[in-house]
Specification:
- The chain has helices spanning 108-111, 293-302, 304-345, and strands spanning 4-9, 32-37, 50-53, 59-68, 74-82, 84-85, 91-92, 112-113, 117-120, 125-133, 143-152, 168-178, 188-198, 201-210, 216-227, 235-244, 248-255, 264-276, 279-291.
- The strands form five sheets. Strands 1, 3, 5, 9, 11 and 12 form a six-stranded mixed beta sheet that branches. Strands 2-4-10-8 form a four-stranded antiparallel beta sheet.
- It is 16% helix and 44% strand.
- The chain has three domains: 4-178, Immunoglobulins (Immunoglobulin-like); 188-302, Immunoglobulin-like (Sandwich); 307-346.
- It is α+β, with helices and mostly antiparallel strands and 346 residues long.
Length: 346
Amino acid sequence: MVAVIVLFLGMFMINTVTAKADSTSTSSGLSFTVKTNLPDNQIDKNNDFYQLKMQPGQKQTITATIYNITQKETKVAINVQSASTTINGSLDYSKAPNSWDNSLKYKLSDMIRYPKLVTVDAGKSQDVSFEITMPNDLFNGILLGGITFNQADSDGVELSRGASIQNRYAYAVAMVLKESDSQVKPNINLQRVTPGQNNGHNVLNVSFQNDQPLLMSNVQVNAKIYSEMGKKPVYSSMKSDMQIAPNSQFKYPVSLQGTPMQPGKYRIEATVTGTAYKTPKTWHFSRKFTIERQEAHALNQSDVDLAANTNNQTILFIAFAMIALLIILFMILLILKRKKSHTMNK
């Protein structure tokens, strides 16, 4: 299993794959450190991540400094992404999701030019430039994302891509861009409920959408799954202290707790509470959905809990069968012995 260890500059928790220490690295596992150079239009200079107030169409170049703290040349792979929301309810800007939410108008990867790979000489430092071009149209809310700095090998390939290497590290720097101080009205939508699996375990994925350009924090989800006309939930899940990135989808898994997925008609009752602009707001949802027989069967076949239970049941069945066979053989031998004894007595 790959350990997730992030050295990040900024207030936002993210998930990323990180680089194993080698003989030239520090105890943190990296051969370099990163320092942000905050410009004059930094909103809060007490923060060490980028939080910039900009104008429509404005172009600006910001920099970060990479320090090579070893006595060997080091290569650093750089990546810029808008924030997405993980299945655990945390922010991720280390990689692009399979698909962006259709409410996201502007992606940081399209707005920022930067070098994808930097080579820093032994014991030296190097400034890296990020050229930002803002959209021409005025927008309210924020654009949220980040910059990740990953150790790269001699060919410039991120070490984080090596599946066989454990204990990976990366530097991550959050970035917030805004043009207006006008507040955006928060909104959460329930999009769909679909059967699926999380790490080989059957779940029902409840897809929520934050369709506004603002960060939802202190998010709590309380989801209950009922049969279509049932009054007692068959599955339930509650989790708090989560975040939902601006203009992103959040796939919230409701575990089936190792039980087989049953086809049929269901309904979900869900409550989502989240905070924006220091004010909490709550949304209530009710939606009917169907689990088809074919998809339930396919998921049950590959569920690791059910496979383990099936193996255990098979072992128990074989054990009971062997015990029963031994009892039958013992009874047969006992009967034959009694018949033989009865014959000899005659």
